[in-house]
Task: inverse folding
């Protein structure tokens, strides 16, 4: 005997609408009304709300539990601003606010990631010069001056300028060694200084890959320290077997004597005359100590004269104080004198 029951088969929708119209609602209010009052609503039923673009589950008490966030299917977002009070939470500090609408993924990022701004370093510039920096007045100088620009986070060079005593002597758009024309230095200082004008530097990304212009290096300029060359008069010490007062000195020491400077003079056996000479603009010698005699003061035994002394290569003469000590007999043994100006 054959069965008269119809053979089972699946249902198919004929268009873009649900098979059961109790599973989709236009507004959240409609969905809440259905869940609270419809006799066919049931616990754990899944319904959708088109205006919210969300899916809800009916709870046992007939309230709606959101299951997804808007659009991308993420877990539900916060429905109000939440401010941390009295505590830090991961990357969020006390007082920070989690804004309304923050999704779960966004929240996780907020507490597990802290945005750190990049560090910007300003450009620097140094200047060096060749040769001896303190020379005898009258010396011809041709120093080579070399600037080194460290760009760091600034932009490239637009103008390079070299100054001497505050006056521009060289300008270019690139760095390179520069030698001023040979010139005689007198009783003076030459102060060289370099300046570079540079363009704005690039904007860096923070640790999360976002551009961070705060602290970026704008267009500007940077200057070097000073490289100074000084023209000074020599100091002279001389020892010999003569017994006449000294004339112009012959044995120079390094240029650039100052008051309170000290020197040690080694006087060989047989010496009769000891000479100390330096520019007359400085005070008289304050002490000549004979070391081997317990630093006995021989200052008063030296006779002072004023003598005109030229600088290097016949440069303009100036007055020198010349102190001469002539012994009664040749010195029998090596003598050490500590001289204080």
Result:
């Amino acid at each position: 005997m054959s069965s008269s029951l119809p053979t089972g088969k699946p249902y198919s929708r004929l268009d873009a609408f649900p098979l059961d119209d109790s599973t989709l609602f236009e507004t959240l209010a409609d969905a809440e009304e259905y869940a609270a009052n419809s006799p066919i609503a049931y616990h754990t039923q899944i319904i959708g709300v088109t205006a919210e673009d969300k899916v809800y589950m009916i709870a046992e008490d007939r309230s709606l539990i959101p299951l997804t966030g808007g659009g991308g299917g993420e877990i539900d977002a916060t429905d109000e601003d939440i401010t941390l009070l009295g505590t830090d939470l991961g990357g969020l500090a006390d007082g920070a606010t989690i804004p309304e609408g923050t999704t779960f993924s966004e929240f996780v990022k907020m507490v597990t990631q802290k945005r750190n701004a990049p560090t910007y370093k300003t450009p620097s510039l140094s200047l060096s010069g060749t040769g001896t920096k303190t020379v005898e007045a009258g010396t011809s100088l041709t120093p080579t001056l070399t600037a080194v620009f460290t760009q760091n986070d600034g932009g490239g060079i637009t103008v390079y300028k070299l100054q001497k005593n505050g006056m521009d002597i060289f300008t270019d758009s690139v760095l390179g060694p520069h030698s001023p024309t040979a010139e005689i230095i007198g009783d003076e200082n030459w102060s060289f200084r370099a300046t570079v004008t540079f363009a704005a530097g690039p904007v860096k990304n923070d640790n999360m890959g976002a551009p961070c212009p705060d602290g970026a290096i704008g267009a500007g300029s940077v200057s070097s320290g000073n490289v100074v060359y000084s023209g000074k008069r020599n100091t002279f010490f001389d020892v010999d077997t003569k017994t006449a007062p000294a004339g112009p000195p012959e044995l120079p020491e390094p240029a650039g004597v100052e008051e309170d400077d000290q020197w040690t003079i080694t006087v060989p056996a047989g010496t009769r005359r000891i000479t100390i000479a330096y520019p007359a603009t400085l005070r008289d010698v304050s002490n000549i100590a004979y070391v081997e005699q317990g630093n006995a003061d021989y200052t008063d035994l030296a006779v002072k004269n004023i003598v005109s002394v030229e600088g290097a290569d016949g440069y303009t003469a100036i007055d020198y104080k010349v102190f001469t000590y002539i012994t009664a007999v040749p010195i029998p043994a090596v003598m050490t004198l500590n001289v204080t100006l």
Summary: The chain has two helices and 27 strands. The helical segments are 28-37, 104-112. The CA atoms of residues 81 and 99 lie 4 Å apart. Residues 28-37 form the longest helix (10 residues).
